[in-house]
TrEMBL record:
Gene Ontology annotations for the cellular component aspect, listed alphabetically: membrane protein complex; plasma membrane
Residue intervals of the ABC transporter domain: 38-274
SMART domains: AAA
Keyword terms: ATP-binding, Nucleotide-binding, Transport
Ranges of compositional bias, category Basic residues: 1-17
Protein name: ABC transport system ATP-binding protein
Length: 278
């Protein structure tokens, strides 16, 4: 299927299954909603003190439904990365609560947070963060070794196969294109079968063709039930997700389900144009 009809079909699927409608008065849902994969409840995070204090998150409450792909957008400095880091247990919140699969991690010990990040959270960065001296296969095996859970080389091959790189297992990062390196990074992030895959600008360093390939891959993962939370500045990338949530000045300002790139861009422009605190 070519990309446009594929995106249209995906949008229709998303519309019909989105479990967390926040702005629509939708028809009654059959049965109870599944528990969110990630839940932020009235979360605050401030950097610095006194006059220099920056309220990066200012009472944010958002649920990310299991098996949904959500894009997080907002003007520069609106708190997107801070939200991602707090939701992934990379940073602690000042107040409020963070739940992963219903488990409250707000006051988890450092050891428990490390175990959570190794076993239940996957992270993909704009800059891939692969180890240059290791092959694709060795990079993907790393989180399995760190998690100290039982694993086999077949687990690694399966993850590389899922991202379409079964023919590149022995290549080192410098022997791969940017898009292929990001695919290795995604394989590394999903090899532990995490509850949530966080992606911080996963297409930010890629040309448009490679970016489209990575977004199609994320779509496939979401369609197979992977929860994904992705920060992006690109409305076209956000349009691939099931929903987009918008932040401004550290606050949640709204959500769009199944919106196309034009509608997302318009909403972002409105946010950027309105005066601070409005
Ligand atoms: N470690 C830090 N120390 C001090 N201030 C910080 C720190 N991290 C983030 N901030 C501030 O918190 C606010 C939110 O930052 P954050 O990186 O979450 O925003 P963002 O929406 O991801 O921005 P961008 O789109 O530019 O990447 C910004 O004003 C930023 O300067």
């Amino acid at each position: 299927m070519s990309r446009k009809p594929r995106q249209r079909a995906a949008r229709e699927r998303r519309r019909s299954r989105n479990a967390y409608p926040k702005e629509r008065t939708s028809t009654p849902q059959p049965g109870p909603l599944p528990s969110p994969a990630i839940s932020l409840k009235d979360v605050t995070r401030t950097y610095g003190h006194g006059d220099a204090a920056v309220h990066a998150l200012n009472g944010v409450s958002i649920d990310f439904g299991p098996g949904t792909w959500t894009a997080v957008m907002g003007p520069s400095g609106s708190g997107k990365s801070t939200l991602l880091h707090c939701a992934a247990g990379l940073e602690r919140v000042d107040s409020g609560r963070v739940l992963v699969d219903g488990t409250d991690i707000t006051h988890a010990s450092d050891a428990d947070l490390t175990a959570l990040r190794r076993g239940r959270i996957g992270f993909v960065f704009q800059s891939y963060n692969l180890l240059g001296s290791l092959t694709a296969e060795e990079n993907v095996a790393l989180p399995l070794k760190l998690a100290r859970a039982p694993w086999t080389p077949a687990d690694v091959r399966r993850a590389l196969d899922e991202v379409g790189l079964s023919g590149r297992t022995g290549h080192r990062p410098r022997q791969l294109s940017g898009g292929q390196q990001q695919r290795v990074a995604i394989a590394r992030a999903i090899v532990t079968r995490p509850s949530v895959l966080f992606a911080d600008e996963p297409t930010g360093a890629l040309d448009s063709t490679s970016a489209a390939g990575v977004l199609d891959l994320l779509r496939d993962l979401a369609d197979r039930g992977q929860t994904i939370v992705m920060v992006t500045h690109d409305p076209a990338a956000a349009a691939h997700a099931d929903a987009t949530v918008f932040l401004r000045d550290g606050a949640f300002t709204g959500r769009a389900d199944g919106a196309d790139a034009r509608a997302i861009a318009d909403r972002l422009l409105t946010l950027e144009a309105s005066p601070c605190g409005a």
